[in-house]
Amino acid sequence: MESLNLPAFEYKVKDVSGKPYIFDIIRRKFVSLTPEEWVRQHFIHLLINHYGYPKSLFAIETGMKYHTLAKRTDIMILSKDSLPFLLVECKAPFIPVNDITFAQISRYNFTLKPAYLAVTNGMSHYCFKVENGRVKFLDDFPFYREWNKEEN
Predict the structure, then answer these.
(1) For the structural domain made of 54-151, what CATH number should be given?
(2) Is the separation of the CB atoms in 75 and 90 below 8 Å?
C-alpha cells in the first residue's frame, strides 16, 4: 500500500486466498485491505495514539438510515453518553476530497448530528464543526482530553 500523509503505525497483515487482510484493533478481526481501509486504519491509530481517544468509544462502519437509504459511517467516536461526537469519512488516497465528499458527510450530519465532522483520503484531512447551520473549519482535530473535561 502507498505511503499516506499520516503517521506510520505497527500493523498486522495476512494473506487470505491471495488477498491481503489487515487487523483492525477496534473490530478485533482481520478485514480486507482495500485502499480505503488502509486510510481508515491509519486514521484510527492517529486518533488513538496522537489525539488520545480510547478504543472503547469507537464505532466502525456503523449502519444508519438517511431518509430511506441505508448508509455506513467509516469512523464514529461516541461520547460517554453513546452519542456521536466525531464522525470521520475515509476515502481511498486516489479519491479527491471535494464537494462530493463534503456533501456525503453533511448528509450523515443531518441524521447523526455529531459535534465534529472530518474527511480524509490519507493525504488531505479536514475537520469542521457545524454551529447554527454554519460550517466552521478547524486547524486541528479535537483532542480527547479537551472535550472529555467538558463532559465531566
Answers:
(1) 3.90.1570.30
(2) yes
